[in-house]
Write a structure and sequence with these properties.
Elements: E1 2-7, H1 14-28, E2 34-40, H2 42-58, E3 62-67, H3 73-95, E4 97-103, H4 105-118, E5 121-125, H5 130-136, H6 145-164, E6 167-170, H7 176-182, E7 190-192, H8 207-216, E8 224-229, H9 238-251, E9 255-260, H10 264-274, E10 283-286, H11 293-297, E11 302-305, H12 319-326, E12 331-333, H13 340-347, E13 350-352, H14 358-365, H15 368-372, H16 377-387, H17 389-403
Parallel strand pairs: 1-2, 1-4, 2-3, 4-5, 5-6, 6-7, 8-9, 8-11, 9-10, 11-12, 12-13
Length: 404
């Protein structure tokens, strides 16, 4: 039986390395005829095509990469979608596909078409409330007619796809009831699989690794390091992160911040506008690939994840939480984002605060050593059963058993 896996995100993207390829390898352990259709950035495909195709072939996965259209705005996206429809139809017909595994909303549109036309089952890997995220991230301004039209069109399409899906995978328990309201016929057709980390890739931090990682970015081994991991954007509240750093810096002179991100220039601009000159030398920024991140996380004493709460955020599962827990690094985070608060409290993996409350930030700034003490081997071991790649593999296997 053949399975077609469609993703608009590329396998060669950083996200592909952490959240697509590991899952595909897990699925290939119990499904032997997997065909992957993905959209790849030309600049990344040029450098890592050979290594990626080698990984795919080692697990007998057939990979059909198409070039992602970087320019031309909505026209470019429309062109990609047309090609996705055509190629998905061709692959389904060629390999006699019985299940289409659609990662995200654009892929699900195509999978819905294939289901209606050729009768293949539809597994909707619902990566979030994509339509509402477009509004949250500023992509759509609902006061504009064209954006409001697109929003309503895609919300109706989302409902139709959910109602016809044979199974839906979501990232959080928090969003399960919502997807049922949005169209899933029965809650038994919904499985929660959070963004998990490969605990064999993200190793436990140690004093030796901490010194080595800090030396790579010239951070003193005696510093108290508050970390940040990931992208930059309005929803990630970097201004509140830096404001928190200002509070901590007044209390302890040994404090610095270390940000691992590809958005280096954006971070530098935020530092210029949010921190006094006296603190600029206490900010360390490093762009890193997936293989470099595990060691660099070891430089942190704790990691801060402030994300703007919203309706769409109930479906979010930040991978960085799992990655830091795998390294034994505790986190300071906020409520209102997926299952984060529930997980942090259950594992005693850090502290939940309100990033908009000066009182909360001041209070937690006096508790940093207590929070750091929550990390280490214990945190890694208690988090692995609920955030490790093994959980994702087990649950995907269960989903496929229901569909076969």
């Amino acid at each position: 039986m053949a399975i077609l896996y469609i993703t608009y995100d590329g396998l060669t993207d950083p996200l592909g390395g952490s959240q697509i390829i590991p899952y595909l390898k897990g699925i290939s352990s119990h499904q032997k005829n997997i065909v992957v259709l993905s959209f790849e950035k030309s600049e990344r495909l040029k450098y890592v095509y050979k290594s990626t195709i080698k990984v795919m072939e080692s697990d007998s996965i057939k990979w059909y990469p198409l070039h992602f259209t970087k320019d031309f705005g909505i026209v470019g996206k429309g062109w990609d979608l047309v090609r996705m429809y055509i190629m998905a139809f061709f692959l389904t017909y060629k390999y006699k596909v019985k299940i289409v595994h659609a990662r995200g909303h654009p892929s699900a549109q195509v999978a819905y078409f294939i289901k209606q036309l050729l009768g293949a089952k539809l597994l909707f890997d619902f990566r979030g409330l994509w339509v509402d995220e477009r509004v949250d991230k500023g992509g759509w301004d609902l006061s504009r007619f064209s954006h409001n039209f697109q929003y309503n069109f895609f919300k109706r399409l989302e409902k139709k796809i959910l109602s016809k899906s044979d199974h839906v995978v979501v990232l959080t328990d928090e969003v399960v009831d919502e997807v049922v309201k949005l169209g899933v016929s029965d809650v038994s057709k919904v499985t929660t699989i959070p963004c998990c980390a490969d605990f064999d890739h993200f190793f436990l931090s140690s004093d030796t690794l901490k010194i080595k990682a800090r030396a790579m970015v010239n951070i003193s081994k005696k510093s108290f390091v508050i970390g940040y991991l990931g992208s930059v954007g309005n929803m990630y509240l970097l201004d509140r992160f830096l404001y928190f750093f200002k509070i901590v810096a007044k209390i302890r002179s040994d404090c610095c911040v270390f940000l691992i991100t590809h958005d280096v220039s954006k971070i530098k601009a935020l530092v210029e506008s949010n921190l006094p000159d006296s603190l600029h030398d206490s900010v360390y920024i490093k762009s890193a690939n997936r293989d470099e991140v595990p060691l660099l996380i070891s430089a942190m004493d704790l990691m801060v994840s402030f994300i703007l709460p919203s309706y769409a955020r109930m479906a979010a599962s930040p991978t960085k939480i799992a990655e830091c827990f795998a390294a034994g690094v505790p986190v300071i985070a906020n409520d209102g984002v997926g299952d984060i608060a529930k997980i942090v409290n259950k594992l005693d993996g850090g502290k939940i605060v309100n990033p908009f409350s000066d009182e909360d930030l001041m209070k937690v700034s006096h508790e940093l050593d207590k929070i750091v003490a929550k990390g280490g081997y214990r945190l890694r071991e208690v988090s692995r059963p609920i955030l490790g790649l093994e959980l994702a593999n087990k649950r995907y296997k269960s989903v496929y058993e229901k569909l076969i």
